[in-house]
Amino acid sequence: MDDLMAELDRRLADADAALAADYRGDRGVRQPVHTVYVPADRYDVHTVDDWGAQARAALDEYAGSAADLAKILAADITDELYERVRAKLDREPIEDLRIDFEDGYGNRPDDEEDAATIAAAQALAANPRTPYRGLRIKSLEAPTRRRGVRTLGLFLEHLGPPGDGFVITLPKVTSVEQVQAMVLVCETFEQQYGVPRLPFEIQVETPQAILGADGTALIARMLKAGGERVTGLHYGTYDYSASLGVAAAYQSMEHPVADHAKDVMQLAAAGTGVFVSDGSTNVLPVGDAVHDAWRLHFRLVRRSLARGIYQGWDMHPTQLPTRFAATYLFYREGFDQAAQRLRAYLGRGESGYLDEPATAAALAGFVLRGIECGALETTEFNTTDLAKLARRALPKD
């Protein structure tokens, strides 16, 4: 037996090493429930507080009580949940902020974008405010490559130490080579500005990212090319749908082409520690359309959560009430059963389920996410125990 096991270890050594390198597991950090995109010329030190104030004002005007919001959304919005949402809008209205120099900003003269870059970097340095923050540069496609790299370098020059939670978003990725190029850009600026390793996200907005010219799915190869620098895969609803010829009226986070792309993203990211984010809806809760837009946004957020995608984009302050209402309701509705099944798995009761370790890990991860975003408060489970059960990497001493 010893000889056999030694031979197996020898034969599988390379495969074992590749598995450990390519599937590193949980990174041990909280995933934000959303990413908020703000055009660079509209961002300043007051932006986060302004978004929170606008979101609270919309809630007061269009749904002044839990009963009002419950009626609008046809959902079980209790007084406690409603107050948790209000408290979240006061305390932490934006979990992940992205200062946008791409589609939300557009193409401007170099001197104008340079000035906006410097102002945004200085404002972010003066008031980081959010757990996660960063910028979206223009893509590394030939027409925008020079401008995107120039903006990133100028931003880093005037930002100072980026700090934990800083991330760069790379849009419209069409090849593995662009990811490799982004690694080179990051390495170069790290040396130039003396900053720690720069992480980045890949935006999946092109059909080439899902299916390469040779018929292979490129997302997994992109993740491998970026290594531990790649922290997220973000779906771009409208660029991707338009690229596939979907008519504008039918472009949506729930279109079949969107679901296919996100299925591929989830498969590629599974076990790697890379977060997957859904996209956005461009139907904004403004004017006479607030209630209809809230219902749509609430339903789409709930749909993403049920699919195992725990993050999405928000593009307007009045989307924040339904982002947090949908997210909080998801975790609060599921908590009792998750807790009962966890207790049973730990030998402290019965649940009617025979859960295996993988499901127990998912249950623990569910509760942990609910606690981290503010949906849940529980003394029943220690967060460190939940993290271990969820197979989350714990911070190193």
Topology overview:
Layout: H1 2-22, E1 34-39, H2 47-62, H3 66-73, H4 79-91, E2 96-100, H5 110-126, E3 132-136, H6 145-159, E4 166-170, H7 176-193, E5 200-204, H8 207-210, H9 219-226, E6 230-235, H10 237-243, H11 256-269, E7 275-277, H12 290-306, E8 312-314, H13 320-345, H14 357-373, H15 383-389
Parallel strand pairs: 1-2, 1-8, 2-3, 3-4, 4-5, 5-6, 6-7
Structure overview:
The structure is a single chain. Helix content is 52%, strand content 10%. The protein is built from 15 helices and 8 strands. It has helices spanning 2-22, 47-62, 66-73, 79-91, 110-126, 145-159, 176-193, 207-210, 219-226, 237-243, 256-269, 290-306, 320-345, 357-373, 383-389, and strands at 34-39, 96-100, 132-136, 166-170, 200-204, 230-235, 275-277, 312-314. The longest helix is centred in the C-terminal third of the chain and has 26 residues, at 320-345.
Key terms:
397 residues; 15 helices; alpha/beta
